[in-house]
Amino acid sequence: MLNMVFLTNSWLSSFNQPGLCITVAVLLHYFLLAAFTWMFLESVHLYLTLVKVFNVYVPKYILKFCIVGWGIPAIVITIVLIINKDFYGNGSHSETNPFSDFCWIQENTVFYISVAAYIFLIFLMNTAMFITVLLQIHSLKSRTQKTSRFSKR
């Protein structure tokens, strides 16, 4: 959906309908945040699979992941819309090219907080999960090597 909204964004912004442009910008923002949220959930799943292998039972696992994966971006979008729906709009990047219009976030502060900081936070959490999984694999490998040396003796 992110790709579909992104590819049709410029065409839809050419209609010069503020409501349509706000809707497209909100959808683009939502699906972008949802994609990164699901990327984080994949790292959580990797952590649970490789580090917390035994005795990990999460009731309604998929439902909880869906609520987080689709819900957190919806909360962020709702907060931005409650503060001011005019943060979204049609931003022209070029006066000479009418096809350069793009429906997106118009305020830099809102962009940096609701997109850049969000993606940076997910990047940090994914890095932490990745390092944890690597350390777990390394310790498992070293334990296996020690066991095989002991059994050879």
Automatic annotation (TrEMBL):
Topology with respect to the bilayer: Multi-pass membrane protein
Gene Ontology biological-process annotations: adenylate cyclase-activating G protein-coupled receptor signaling pathway; cell surface receptor signaling pathway
One Pfam family of this protein, by short name? 7tm_2
Determine the domain of life of the protein's source.
Answer: Eukaryota
Q: Which GO terms describe its molecular function?
A: G protein-coupled receptor activity
> Would the keyword Membrane turn up in this protein's UniProt record?
yes
Which segments constitute the G-protein coupled receptors family 2 profile domain? 1-153
User: Membrane-crossing residues?
Assistant: 20-41, 61-83, 110-135
Q: Does the keyword Transmembrane helix apply?
A: yes
Task: Tell me where it resides.
Answer: Membrane
Q: Which PANTHER family does the entry mention? A: ADHESION G-PROTEIN COUPLED RECEPTOR, ADHESION G-PROTEIN COUPLED RECEPTOR G4
GO cellular component terms?
plasma membrane
Q: Which UniProt keywords apply?
A: Membrane, Transmembrane, Transmembrane helix
Protein name, please?
AGRG4 protein
